[in-house]
Amino acid sequence: MQKTVRPIRTGEEYIESLRGRDLKVYLFGELVKDPVEHKMIRPSINAVAKTYDLAVEEEELAFPKSSISGEHVNRFLHIAESAQDLVLQNKMQRKLGQLTGTCFQRCVGMDALNSLHSTTFEIDEKHGTKYHQRLLEFIKKVQHENLVIGGAMTDVKGDRSLAPSEQEDPDLFVHIVKRDDKGVYITGAKAHQTGTINSHWMIVMPTMRLQENDKDYAIVGAIPVDAPGIKYIYGRQSCDTRSMEPGDIDVGNSEYGGQETMVILDNVFIPNELIFMDGEYDFAAMLVERFTCYHRRSYVCKTGLGDVLIGAAAAVADYNGVPKVSHIKDKIIEMTHLNESIYAAGISSSYQAQKMKSGVFLNDDMLANVCKHNVTRFPYEIGRLAQDIAGGLLVTLPSEAELRSPETGPILKKYLKAKSGAEVENRMRVLRLIENMTMGRNAVGYLTESMHGAGSPQAQRIQIARQMQLGYKKKLAKDLAKVKGENEEIKESSEYFQRVFKLDNRED
Question: Could you give all domains of the chain from N- to C-terminal order, each with its CATH number?
């Protein structure tokens, strides 16, 4: 396993841990010599660093004690031992969204570890394997060293009408290409991978339900991100090259940003002790469903970004001298209503958790899907309202270079002046932040990634439909209406209302 000199504690120590690695990162068609100091990449590293600093600054929120290692650990590495642990994950996620205004890239790894905790336990129970103990040993290591774990689930998929083993090119889904007595070798690609090159380890997982012919695709394992055979192709983001320009106004959020890559795996080795599924195709769906259950309520992080955007809209209204105008107040109220609706569903899902066989707690699936489905829509409306309040200057604002120019700067300071006492530069900074979050680099995480991350909107609608319990609800209606002569048998797979009316969520 990968080794570190000593446990990482602070954000600065984390940044130092990323230096000197043999990463193959390609950006603009070239190999990046030093990702840590690259101006486009560094904001995403700063966002991850904030997850370390928060654990130092607010230990109760972000630095719990783990029963696995016996140590206090970063909450992103913690296995949820109660419903309250899941609730505190959500509170931490909202706080980090507020502090960074972007994606801080650690939720996938956290949700992967928690979903694997229960899934490996149940694989072992059925097949007599030893995956769960391997996972616990891995968790102990990463908790002690305080490392960043990335999760790699989404395959490139190819022809979506065909199963992984039916694809014309077998590499379109990650699969085992050979094995020996020490482990397995995998090949394929993972798309849309959040924060991969800012991680220390990556957990590779299947992306969908598998059949017997897909056994070679039923592979889960942990890999150092700088393992031989891995290439990273950096994803473009809107307005991303502004980070490479002089000044810090036009970029909107100069300190923090997100990161997505395509991960190419070419005969990458996974040793036996780091394999947590190998051919148990019948458990692929369980893993995916439990991961998405955790991850869809993890999207409460977007409410932290929403808090920032609401604040920016309110600040622009102040600069424009219209904070008390009724339609402006109404729009900010609506933005807040939508934002809190996202949070309400997500944190309710965590409160309504259930204890799994392995001891880990899993949040409520129905409310997790409602949370994520809200996220596919509400941030777009919050963003639209922010743009409405900001006005046309949002998209016609001259550059920072114009502001700094002896020729044009005085002109801008004269004609872009609004409310008395409001500095033109400050007005420009807030307008650029709104642009950044609704059209620029951080719109990637706030809007489009909110649409498709953790499954498309239709994926959530399918899960909601499975749990509607219409038979149960029809019976409620018919009983109250005193309907006679209908004895329809109720066959419901969902246990949603059992969880709704459960009086104590601390135990089974």
Answer: 11-284 (2.40.110.10), 298-465 (1.20.140.10), 468-500 (no CATH)
